[in-house]
Hints:
- 31% of the residues lie in helices and 29% in strands.
- The chain has five helices and six strands.
- The protein has helices spanning 19-28, 72-76, 91-107, 131-140, 156-166, and strands spanning 3-13, 41-50, 53-62, 81-87, 113-119, 144-147.
- Strands 2-3-1-4-5-6 form a six-stranded mixed β-sheet, sandwiched between helices.
- β2 (41-50) and β3 form a beta hairpin.
- The mean pLDDT is 95.
- The structure holds guanosine-5'-diphosphate and magnesium ion (MG).
- Magnesium ion (MG) binds next to α1.
Amino acid sequence: xxNNLNAKLVLLGDMGAGxxxxxxxxxxxxxxxxxESTIGAAFFSxxxxxxxxxxxxEIWDTAGQERYHSLAPMYYRGAAAAIIVYDITSTDSFAKAxxxxxxxQKQGNPNMVMTLAGNKADLExxxxxxxxxxxxxxxxxxxxxxxxxxxxAINVNDIFHEIAKRLPRA
Length: 170
Ligand code: GDP
Ligand code: MG
């Protein structure tokens, strides 16, 4: 069929994990070494064609700071998909990602396509979170998992593409 889907997607995760950088890479094909912190949230849209559908992502890039936490439900409520981002060089950011997963499991849309992104995969020499540990966690929690790099672009389009394929069809 001819499926045109609009999909609200939210990025959540610790400040500095690379949420804005992943969006910038996906939407504009760019990377900025000193990306400014997001205040509140930023909105982007990008359309992706998959085999059986055209998906227009309406992307909410949230700020990771604790003081904006109370705003998060506004962005994940009604979202068809979420990307929870951590930084593979930070165990704290992985712990924070798990908190977001718990919150979404409790409060989010039950049909939400949830994805875990281990970002900064280019920084292999500084890695603190193993691929295996994240993979096991993702599997146990029914999340789709990929390691990404906004810097080198590895797996960035792929993660959005996988989400587009997994969205329920009208
Ligand atoms: P956010 O707070 O989650 O939105 O994180 P940002 O996108 O602002 O990124 C925080 C910092 O990490 C910035 O200095 C980025 O340039 C850097 N960064 C983001 N993604 C990557 C990546 O994949 N690799 C490397 N090496 N640095 C990254
Ligand atoms: Mg940001």
